[in-house]
Structure formats: C-alpha cells, structure tokens
Design brief:
558 residues, hpI Integrase, Chain A, 4 domains, 28 helices, 2 strands, globular
Length: 558
C-alpha cells in the first residue's frame, strides 16, 4: 500500500486505476484520497462518477445480503458475483427487459471477461429476477443446454435427424469399445464429441457456401448428403479444416504424418454412419491420404529437445504438495510407479488392489488399453498410501471404485479431474510446460528405467506395449554420456556398480573405444537413421572421439 503514495497519478491511465479498485468500494476511498492530495489528476470527475456507482452498488448489495441472508450455504461466496451483476446490468435495470436467453448471453460475457463461476452467476441472476418479478422458469433448462450437457448431448436435441446420427455413431462405438476400452463411457463421449463437432462444421460450411443455398430442407446437411458426389465430400472436408487450429506444441512425436490427419479420420468416421448418403460405398473405400494431399500441412516438427517427462525433483515436489490428499497421493503413486494409462487408473476397483481381508496386495492385474490384462507390482510406499486412503473410506465396498467422485461414490473419478488436479498441483509447485498431463508419467517411467540400463524389450513388456517402437517414442534421452555410465557390458566386466575409480576410468575408455569402432562401421543409411533419432549426434561423437584412441574412417560424423 505504501508504494501507492509514491506514484505519479498524472501519468497513470484511468483504466489502470479503476482496474486496481475493481469491485472493492474501500479501494475507491483510498484512491480518492490519493488523487485529491495535489488536485492535479485531470480525470477526477470520471473517477468520482465510478466511485459513486461503486458506493451505490455496495449499499444495494448489503441490503440484499441483510434481507435475504446471502451468506447462507446456497449462496456461499456470491456477494462478489452480485457486484459483477450490478456493474454489468446497471443496478439490475436490464433484468426487467431482457429475455432469459439474453440474460444467459450476458452471463457468458461476464464469465469470459471476469473469469467468474458461471454456476454462481446464474444462481444470482435467477435470485435478482425473482426479486424483480421477472419470469425465469426456463433458466435452468437453458443453462443445462448451454453449459451442463456435452457437445454430443446438445447435438442430439437439435432434430430427429441429429439424434439418429448420434445414436447410430454411439451404437457403432459401443460395439468396438466393448472389445478394446477399459473406460467405455468417457472414451465414448470423447469420440462422439469430436465426430458431432465435425457434422456441425459441415453444416456451417453449407450455410456459408453459396452453391448450397438452394437447399431449404432442415437440416441442409441431410439434403446435401443425399445428392452429393465423392468430390463434394472431399471438398467439404478440406474446407472445414480451415477452422481447425493446429496445436504444434502438443504433437505426440516427430513421426506424426500430417496436421489434418485426426480431422480427416473423424470426418470419415462420422460420414460412414450417417444414413442415406448417396456415395456411402465410395466413402468407405476412400483413403485419408487422398484427402491429406489436398490439405496444407500446418504442423511444425517439434524441437528434439522438447521435454515430455518429469524430472526427479519435480516428482518429489508434486508428492510434497499432495501430502494432505490421501486419494490423489495414491493416484500420483500409481501413475509414477506403474505408468498406468489414466483411463485404466480411474476404472480400478478396490478388489483390484486388496484381498478379502482388506490388505493391499503386492501384485495385481489391471484391465488396460485393448482390454488387455496388465500385471503391475505395488511397492511398499504404494501399499502404505493405499492403506491410508482406504482408511478414510467408510464403508468399503470391494466392488466399488478405488477413486470416486466427491459427490457420488458410485461413480469413478473422471479423467478430466485427474488432469485438472495435476495441472493445479504443478502450478502450485512452479512446474510449467506441455508435459503436465497424466500420460507424461509413462514417458517419465520409460526414461527412468532405460537410464538405469534396463533392456528396452523388458521395459516394453513392463509398460504393456505391444511393440518396441512405441516404447522408443517415449524415450527422449539423447546423450550417450548419460547412457554409457549405466550400461552393463559383461565381456568387459562392466556392471552397474564399480568401486574402484581407476577401474571406472579404464572401463569407460574401453567402452568409448568400442563405441567409436561401432560408429565407424555404420552404413550411410544407418548414420542418417541415427541422426533422425539423435539430432545432436555429431557433437556427441566429436566429444567422444577427442578422448578415444580409435582412428575414425569411412565418413566420420565429426
């Protein structure tokens, strides 16, 4: 506060002062005293007008609080929301003239500009409307359609045709996910949301394209698909990609083929289930590559140094920050020590990790991706965390979910909650980056196991991968100097722990010489492949060559 007295308010913009005052009438009083100190503030009249508005608003808010007891649990923390409403609606006058839909629109404006809780906003808006005698019977329904329902649920309510498309797509996905997914409902909602979004993009495309203005039947997409040919379909998919944002920083790996690949796959997937499409057979045989050749690739290859795993000190900070939450400590422990996918983790039952006596097991099998049973080992720390977590659950149903929702113990914790909670913890620890997501723990586990000298075949089996190439994509360590000290080389008596420092030095020299010989024997194709995996291999080989006794020939790296 003392710093405010030293500011030169003749150079401070009025907007900055008003932003600092915000919705606190006491701050207006402090600022008025400071601005009146030397009588040189040129926008004093405008400031006093805003101050008067704030003081008037505060009296009304206090009256509402006194008369209707807004501090009640139903409106807990809502006084600030009433202040937002007053500022945006000019003392609630607009509430007497706006329709319910218009009020929701204004709620959305406040939410986006002030980052308010939309549930609180709607509650307070209904409260004020009822107080002024304005009908608000449909507010809850409008709110549900706009905010509570997922995209595919709103899509289903648009028309009978939309419901038919959504139901057909849901039936197809359920049959497929029953054989492959460990978390059917969330995966189903994920796919339906993306696919129904694509149909919405198609409708927007037809609405804006003058060639299809002739279609008057509602919905237009239904009539269009009855009369179009395969070229029209391809053209529509290409045009709708223009509105899709390419998130280069979240590309899974450098091997991703095209930025529009996911968009094209979802478009073709939903088009295959829409009924009464004239070129349905051609769509089923249409290859994504044909469409991708007509779309510009927006993706930039990520930097090879881009980190996708947690460091050791970061993991320790996350566990320290989570000490008071026994349930999420177990979540973090499972992610970190087993590398479970988040869908499999939230679907775990108490019976998966405890015996009939309620004692945590040391080994268990979990249903993972592809409906495969994956065996995981539970460490002493993991079993201790489970005992602490389960001790807080009363009563314990062995067939119940291990991690449940806060307000409904019959439903498992959502994957979105795990992601948001992890991001919240990371921000509290000062950890930022694109690697803040549950799946990054699988990357971290691979890096940890490989850096300890484990064979990649064993690591791949440990994670439940069906292919070693999948494991390789998780392994981001690219420095030979990080790998060599942990290597086990039996014919050189090189093991993970060596006591004699001189023996360490001699053995490392022999290992470097062997590596140099191996490098000199690589073909040109093998060298190019190695450079793709380790872009800075030139500098690494150069450093090793300087301390090696081997003479390099045949197209050296350095």
């Amino acid at each position: 506060m003392s710093e405010l007295f030293d500011l030169n308010y003749n150079t401070v913009p009025l907007d900055t002062i008003l932003r600092w005052c915000g919705h606190f009438h006491t701050r207006y009083l402090y600022m008025h005293a400071l601005l009146s100190r030397d009588n040189h503030f040129t926008q004093m009249a405008e400031f006093e007008k805003r101050q008067g508005h704030a003081l008037k608003r505060e009296k009304i808010v206090e009256e509402i609080n006194t008369e209707y007891n807004i501090t009640h649990e139903k409106f807990a923390g809502s006084l600030m929301t009433f202040r937002f409403l007053y500022d945006y609606f000019d003392a609630y006058v607009d509430f007497t003239t706006l329709t319910e839909i218009d009020v929701i629109e204004r709620m959305d404006d406040i939410k986006s500009n002030e980052n308010c809780n939309i549930i609180n906003l709607v509650k307070c808006a209904k409260f004020v409307m009822e107080k002024n005698g304005v009908p608000c019977d449909n507010m809850d329904k409008i709110y549900d359609l706009r905010y509570r329902l997922r995209c595919h649920e709103r899509f289903r309510l648009m028309s009978d045709w939309h419901r038919l498309v959504c139901d057909t797509a849901e039936q197809k996905h359920r049959q497929r996910l029953a054989k492959s997914s460990s978390c059917i409902e969330e995966t189903l909602a994920f796919h339906l949301t993306h696919e129904m979004n694509k149909v919405t993009l198609f409708e927007d495309h037809l609405e804006n394209d003058f060639r299809y203005k002739c279609y008057t039947e509602n919905p237009k997409i239904k009539q269009f698909l009855r009369e179009c040919n395969i070229d029209d379909i391809v053209d529509m998919i290409c045009h709708t990609y223009a509105s899709v944002k390419c998130r280069n920083e979240r590309v899974k790996s450098q091997h991703t083929k095209h930025s529009a690949l996911q968009h094209v796959n979802y478009c073709l997937s939903v088009l295959k289930v829409i009924p009464d499409v004239t070129c349905a057979m051609q769509i089923k045989t249409l290859k994504p590559s044909i469409i991708l050749n007509q779309i510009e690739d927006k993706r930039e290859h990520p930097d090879h140094e881009l980190r996708r795993h947690f460091y050791k000190d970061e993991v320790e900070k996350l566990f320290d920050m989570c000490k008071g939450d026994a349930e999420f400590t177990c979540v973090l422990r499972l992610l970190h020590e087993t590398g479970l996918r988040v869908n499999a983790l939230v679907s775990m039952k108490i019976s998966n990790v405890t015996d009939f006596n309620g004692t945590p097991k040391s080994e268990t099998s979990i249903l993972d991706k592809g409906r495969k049973l994956r065996t995981i080992l539970l460490s002493d720390n993991m079993r201790a965390d489970l005992e602490t977590h389960l001790a807080q659950r009363t009563p314990i149903d062995r067939n119940g979910f291990l991690f449940t929702q806060k307000n409904n113990y019959n439903k498992h914790m959502t994957t979105m909650y795990v992601r948001k909670q992890l991001i919240k913890l990371a921000n509290s620890c000062g950890i930022h980056g694109i690697h803040i997501h549950p799946h990054a723990f699988r990357h971290t586990l691979v890096n940890n196991l490989m850096s300890m000298g484990n064979d990649i075949h064993n690591v791949s089996k440990f994670l439940g991968h069906s292919s070693i190439s999948t494991t390789e994509q998780y392994y981001w360590t690219s420095k030979i100097s990080d790998i060599v000290p942990n290597m086990t080389i039996p014919w050189l008596n090189r093991f993970k722990t060596l006591n004699d420092s001189e023996e360490d030095s001699d053995t490392e020299q022999i290992a470097i010489d062997i590596l140099m010989v191996c490098v000199s024997m690589l073909t040109q194709e093998q060298r190019e492949a190695l450079k793709q995996r380790i872009p800075n291999i030139d500098s690494i080989i150069g450093q090793l060559y300087s301390s090696s006794s081997v003479t390099m020939t045949n197209g050296d790296f350095c």
